[in-house]
Design brief:
Elements (H helix, E strand, L loop, with lengths): L7 E4 L8 E7 L3 H6 L2 E2 L17 E9 L2 E11 L10 E7 L2 H13 L3 E2 L4 H8 L5 H12 L3 H11 L2 H25 L10 H30 L1 E7 L5 H9 L17 E7 L2 E7 L9 H16 L2 E7 L3 H9 L7 E6 L22 H18 L10 H22 L4 H19 L5 H8 L7
Parallel strand pairs: 1-7, 8-10, 8-11, 11-12
Antiparallel strand pairs: 1-2, 2-6, 3-4, 4-5, 5-6, 9-10
Helix pairs in contact: 4-5, 6-13, 7-11, 7-12, 12-13
The protein binds guanosine-5'-triphosphate (GTP) and magnesium ion (MG).
């Protein structure tokens, strides 16, 4: 049996105690398979004539494995090509519960269906031309989106706005190649179809467009994956207390013993509609303790990886307090904050002096963090379309390199073959984004990251 003819199935909803579980099947002969186990009668197995059901209709019935009654179900049919995968698709809604799912799964396998691989439904949708590769990737992003912004970007990509932009750029490149190659055919007649000055200007404009799209990834990745916010500082200043305050739970151990946090802790958090990955780190100090030393080393890595660093100090340490108050610098990624202001209320005039214990001014700190995150997101966002996918960014970078080579060729008076070679390579690279030139490895790499059932 060839891969394409296999009937695949997977739960489309979470399996467990719930109202219903939806099990999706896709592939040629899906309807015949269903008719082998769907009965209109509860009392005995009377096969349903599913071949006569019309597409996009829902039918009540009883699922049997031979004489064994499994569950009362509702089945929805989608006939090829008007389905998610472009193949015949059926969705069986059973009662929720893992036992029922196991029984249905055993039955479907007995009837010749196979468990779907992660992302296999979307892969089939792509291979059957129901969506391009960037749109298929957006399906996974949409499922994972945790904020309004991430959701909007995934929807933009899913509905093809991003793909249209890529196709537009690709069309431009195809036109330039065609003209250059056509001119070669007329080289003996000395006909000039492409004015090199005009081409140079067009290539320059394209390079600028590619660069602005590539840069938008800096914003896109933050919107999609969250802002990495690391809380750092010396031992005992209240980093874990601030961490717990924002999470609204006692996630990290807090004690008055310096060096309490050994390894870093990481938790997701949404503030001001922005997703953050909040990291509590070990207090940084010189130490002979091997475990604490390792904690400090890991803290330093987290500082490197952070988009925003919250540098905490203790108000009772007056030297540090003065230094920190004067160095609130909004141009870099650090926000300096003084904690334990409840111990020295006189210092509370400073903008970022807080108390994680009493909650005083913690709202001001939250607002400062959100403002910095917003600034980060808008900083690299000059394009009308935002890249959220590293693979797309890499394809654009590669494509841009070829365009830079093409520009050099034009400037140095290179022949049409050389210029057109570079432009064609640039075109192939951006074509990979929407999957026009994607190979099997690229596809596998993309779809194996999907969840089962999508
Ligand atoms: N008075 C007061 N005490 C605080 C405040 N925040 C934290 N503390 C206390 O300071 C001590 C240290 O707090 P932690 O949150 O464990 O400090 P830390 O920076 O994570 O310390 P390490 O993990 O050892 O680096 C604990 O006794 C806390 O109760 C505050 O705002 N006011
Ligand atoms: Mg700590």
């Amino acid at each position: 049996m060839s891969f394409d003819n296999r009937i695949i199935f997977a739960p489309a909803t979470m399996v467990g105690e719930s109202g219903i579980t939806v099990i999706r099947l896709s592939g040629k002969d899906t309807f015949a398979l269903i008719s082998n186990c769907l009965s209109k009668s509860y009392a005995e197995f009377l096969p349903a004539d599913v071949d006569h059901y019309t597409s996009h209709t829902t039918h009540h019935g009883y699922l049997f494995s031979g004489a064994d009654f499994i569950d009362e179900v509702v089945v929805t049919f989608f006939k090829a090509p008007n389905s998610y995968t472009g193949e015949d698709v059926a969705e069986i809604s059973t009662h929720g519960g893992s036992y029922i799912y196991r029984k249905v799964s055993d039955l479907l396998m007995k009837l010749g269906a196979f468990h779907a691989e992660p992302g296999e439904f979307s892969k089939r949708a792509y291979l059957n031309g129901k969506m391009d590769l960037a749109q298929a990737e957006a399906v996974a992003d949409l499922i994972k989106a945790k904020t309004d912004q991430a959701n909007k970007l995934a929807l933009q990509q899913l509905t093809g706005k991003f793909s249209s932009k890529i196709k537009e750029l690709r069309e431009d490149l195809i036109n330039y190649c065609s003209l250059l190659e056509l001119e070669l055919d007329f080289s003996e007649e000395g006909i000039d179809l492409v004015e090199k000055d005009v081409l140079l200007e067009k290539v320059n404009k394209l390079i600028a467009k590619f660069q602005s799209l590539t840069q938008s990834y800096e914003s896109g990745k933050i919107i999609k994956n969250g802002v990495n916010l690391a809380i750092i500082g010396r031992p005992n200043v209240g980093k874990s207390s601030i961490f717990n305050y924002f999470l609204d739970e006692n996630r990290a151990i807090v004690s008055d013993i310096p060096g309490t946090t050994r390894d870093y802790l990481e938790e997701p958090l949404i503030m001001g509609g922005i997703q953050f990955n909040l990291v509590d780190t070990a207090g940084i100090r010189e130490t002979k303790d091997v475990i604490e030393k390792e904690g400090v080393r890991r803290s330093k890595i987290k500082i490197e990886e952070a988009d925003i660093v919250l540098e905490v100090d203790d108000v009772t340490n007056s030297d540090i307090a003065v230094e920190a108050f004067s160095e609130t610098d909004n141009s870099n990624k650090t926000i300096k904050v003084i904690n334990k202001i409840d111990l020295m209320p006189g210092k509370s005039n400073a903008a970022l002096a807080v108390s994680a214990k009493s909650g005083e001014k913690m709202d001001v700190l939250e607002a400062a963090i959100i403002a910095k995150a917003k600034e980060l997101i808008s900083r690299n966002n000059q394009s009308d379309v935002i890249i959220t996918n590293e693979r797309h960014r890499d394809c654009l970078l590669k494509s841009c390199e070829y365009l830079v080579n093409a520009r050099e060729q034009i400037q140095q008076g290179g022949g049409n073959e050389l210029i057109s070679f570079e432009i064609r390579a640039a075109m192939d690279s951006i074509s990979e984004i929407i999957g026009k030139t994607a190979n099997v490895d690229i596809l596998n790499n993309i779809f194996t990251k999907f969840c089962i059932g999508k």
